[in-house]
Design goal:
Shape: elongated
CATH architecture of the domain at 3-40: Orthogonal Bundle
Helix content: 40-55%
Radius of gyration: 22 Å
Distance between the termini: 61 Å
Number of strands: 0
CATH class of the domain at 3-40: Mainly Alpha
Number of helices: 2
Structural class: mainly alpha
CATH topology of the domain at 3-40: Histone, subunit A
């Protein structure tokens, strides 16, 4: 991600940012993207779900 990407995002959401704010947002976004990349690399192929899905609502009954 680059400063121009932050500027485009600011334009899309219609906010004005100082150069310092742009640098801060860029740094934060780089950290977020690095975290997402680390999560994507986690091998979950052999992981089974630890919860069971079931309907918690009562069955519809006609009267």
């Amino acid at each position: 991600m680059e400063i121009k990407d932050v500027e485009k995002l600011a334009e899309l959401v219609k906010i004005e940012l100082s150069e310092e704010e742009k640098k801060t947002i860029l740094k934060d976004m780089d950290g977020i993207l690095a975290y997402v990349k680390a999560i994507e690399e986690v091998d979950v192929g052999n992981v089974t779900a630890q919860y069971g899905l079931h309907n918690i609502w009562r069955e519809d009954e006609t009267s």
